[in-house]
Write a structure and sequence with these properties.
Rhomboid-like fold; protease; two-stranded antiparallel sheet; Rhomboid-like_sf; 6 strands; hydrolase; mainly alpha; 294 residues
Length: 294
């Protein structure tokens, strides 16, 4: 390799207000490097004094310069609202399963193509019941299953919701759930049932890793936790690994588009990525449907 003759560039940026101070932290809003003296805590990460000041004006300028989340979403007074709603829906469906029994499970369960009862009609996603791709992601039967998934949602959801904003976080969660269901539908046996929010939760794992890398945080905790969950995924029997991997990949891809989109075309890139991922999910389901139906 040819030796470089010039002096290597500094790997650590300097604070834009104090050039003599090196720092690895950037403003979550304008992305300029800031030192500890200039860091003002925000819902996610830190903001610089100028961004905080421009967000506190009045009238039209205040609306135009309103502080945004890292991904460009509106700051909310309760950064856990969507997480709470999702948790509540999962718990409500679980209570309904306890009250109504197997009938509701059969109606919401994810499977490709099979008869749920002897001499009954053939049902499943391949028979046009595409709603099962989403309803199964809110369906749990065992207490330990919903407890583990809801703990994951409560641990991972609020920081992501605060960083992305409510609309973007909702899109991420639902697309991760659909991505996990689509891969399960495509790879699993058509008569094999699958249920649970695990695909969406693994999507949050992937998104959290992307966000922490973007903010230059220590990624070891989330990577260790993700590795442990992946070990369980491939060693415990009865786990739909397809949902976990599908959700993980979907969540990571969507999160990358959201936190790395250029500011000038941020909304276009973000929602374009969501639309593209949705098209991929639909394409996977169409291909699998053609394989399973005569």
């Amino acid at each position: 390799m040819e030796e470089q003759q010039h002096q290597p560039q500094r790997s650590v940026a300097s604070c834009y207000r104090h050039p003599d101070r090196e720092t690895g932290i950037r403003c979550a809003r304008c992305e300029r490097p800031i030192c500890p003296e200039c860091m003002i805590p925000a819902s996610v990460g830190f903001q610089c004094p100028e961004c905080v000041r421009t967000g506190s004006g009045t009238g039209h300028s205040r609306a135009a310069n309103q502080p945004r989340t890292l991904a460009g979403g509106s700051l909310a007074s309760d950064p856990r609202l969507v997480t709470k709603i999702l948790l509540g829906v999962n718990v409500a469906v679980f209570v309904a399963v306890l009250a109504l029994g197997d009938r509701i499970v059969e109606d919401l369960l994810l499977f490709g193509r099979a008869a749920t009862e002897q001499f009954g009609p053939v049902e499943g996603v391949a028979e046009g019941q595409w709603y099962r791709l989403l309803t199964s992601a809110f369906l749990h039967q065992e207490p330990w299953h919903i407890i583990m998934n809801m703990l994951g949602l409560w641990f991972l959801g609020p920081p992501l919701e605060a960083a992305l904003g409510r609309v973007r976080f909702t899109a991420l969660y639902l697309l991760a759930a659909l991505g996990g269901s689509a891969l399960t539908f495509y790879l699993a046996s058509p008569g094999q049932g699958s249920l649970g929010a695990s695909g969406a939760i693994f999507g949050l794992f992937g998104a959290t890793a992307v966000l922490m890398r973007r903010l230059q945080y220590d990624m070891r905790p989330i990577l260790i936790l993700l590795a442990i969950n992946l070990v369980f995924t491939f060693t415990w029997s009865g786990i739909a690994w397809e949902a976990h991997i599908g959700g993980l990949v979907t969540g990571a891809v969507i999160a990358y588009a959201m936190v790395h989109a250029p500011r000038e075309k941020r909304t276009l890139v973000q929602y374009g990525a969501c639309a593209a991922m949705l098209l991929v999910i639909v394409a996977v389901c169409v291909v699998r449907t053609l394989q399973l139906t005569p």
